[in-house]
Amino acid sequence: xxxxxxxxxxxxxxxxxxxxxxxxxxxxxxxxxxxxxxxxxxxxxxxxxxxxxxxxxxxxxxxxxxxxxx
Length: 70
Hints:
Layout: H1 3-20, H2 25-32, H3 36-44, H4 51-61, H5 65-69
Keywords: DNA-binding
Domain HTH cro/C1-type: 14-68
Protein name: Helix-turn-helix transcriptional regulator
């Protein structure tokens, strides 16, 4: 699995988790104190994620970081 594959997989899981929680990108952006385009970047795999940012997303969505990496 390439780095790009991993980024796309994590991006997909963020998007699907957000949708499953009934949140819009704007609502998630508010929870993370970032702009909506930033959340769009996370979900498209175009915005690089640090472990710290991934942890903030997990907390906002009330899931484990592991859920994004499995």
